[in-house]
Amino acid sequence: MPTKHAILVGLGDYYADFGTGLDSLPFVYKNVDDLSQKLDALGWKVYPAILDNLAGKEKIMKYLDEKIGLLEKDDWLLFYYTGHGDRRARAGALDDMFLVNFSDKLRVNQALPFDDFIFDAHYNTVINKFHGAAPDGHLITILDCCYAFGLIDNFKSQKDFHTVFAASQADSEAFYSNNSFFFKALSQSWNESNLENMQGTLENRLALLSRISECRIQLAEKFSSQSL
Amino acid sequence: MQPKVNGKEQTKPRQKTATSSYENQGKNKTLTLTLWLIGILLVCVGAYFKSSGSQGKAFWIVAGSLTLSPLLIVLLTIAFGRINYKNGIWDYIVGEEGTYSLSRVQGVLWALIIIAFQLETIFGLITKNPIYSIYYEPVLSESTIWLLGLTLTSYLAVKGITVNNIAKKPGLYKRWHTPSWSDLLTGPNGLDFSRCQMLLWTVIAVVVYISKCYNYTEFLIREANPGNIPALLTHMQIEYRPGQGADKFPALPFVPFLPWSFIVLMGLSQGVYVGKKLVPTFKLDDVKDMKATELKSSVDQLAIKRKLLTSLQQRTTANNAMPGDKENLQHLETAINDLENNIAALNKDLKDINTFQSN
Lengths: 228, 359
Description:
A: three-stranded antiparallel sheet, 29% helix
């Protein structure tokens, strides 16, 4: 029986408290709590969430490395990120997407500290490490941010083992009111009996919120009939 | 909680603009402007050579100089490789809040017009006879220098006030705002009359000053007596200096100037504009409401974070936490302590305000 591990990262108050010029996202704590409780109830090993100014690139990458090091060959790993996301132009190629994770250099009126952010290329190394450590395992990435699917490079080569729930396409923004629309729909879909049904319910809920075109869901082919 | 409009939740994107296209946007804006300026300059040069008579030549010299002046600034900026800003060359007029700044627009505008006037004088002398260019020296009337000084002082004062305000309230900086010309008329509370009237006075002053520049250049080209040229370049208007004696060159036009009453008017306008930024736009009741809202939100957040901490602690004990996990928990505990301190401070502020109001 594989062990299921979950790593949750949330950035909310940090954006306002540190004068980043970005909107605070007050709902991330409740979402992290709701998701961790749900996963806990389903038997997942949920690690303490990395929040706000602790959620720097080095910490997140190191933490992911540490937990991937614990995996057996058929274990599952879920990575959930809720916060801001953005992208940087690359001449003649697709834009680079990055998570606006914590950086003490992210300040109003100053250049963006790109070196401090987790880009799609960094996350690609995480995916490769996961597949190396758990070749029969299942990686689930849930990204609740703008340009979310941009964090995933070359999905075709990962379609056997990687499931992605992205709140937005690589070139679109993710919207929220009192909570993220994506998370509202996600929380209404996670009781489904398998991932395929979960995808259907999630898309239906988003359609009811007129937000279907923004999200992007890709299921790992081998695991689509299994539940969370 | 976001406001609801017409029964539908108002939404907003997490970020309005991607940084992706910042560099390209800036370069494109700058290159577009450069091409426009070069095009207009070529038209002016062609029309100058086709025109005959002092009026036609003076007109195209003034038009060409007003084009060449910003073009020189653009080329200098490109030469230094500083066009990768989000707004490119337009960054010169973007203020600390990320919007177009009226004081910056005024400062840049007057600097460009005064530089253009120097170019007009040089080209006027060359048109008359290239050898006369040796007479050139920077030609500036006292009132022009005062006007430039006023706008620059206003710019500095506004910058100081804005930076101070942003330091206190970082949300004032609009990182994702795309500057637009309407920024010149709007303040934090919508349309701002002090900005509107100052913009209008500036437009009037610019039109008057440029028309004087044209008359001056036209006279420079037309003047038949070369001996008058050195006098023309130093012929200043004397408005408030009784006892200076009669003007020795009554037939010569003055170096372009603006009346002192106009300078005083501009000074007053700038004073109101700067002063308005210093006057708080809120009342004590507004502060009280703001703090009460923040308190409610902080109390809600505290409850959520406490619940999160409790549930994480329960699971972590069962999972034999590693150092990284313990760090995450400690961080959340610290955040909760900070929030509790903030709530205590907000309660104290509200209590002080209530005490003050009841006295």
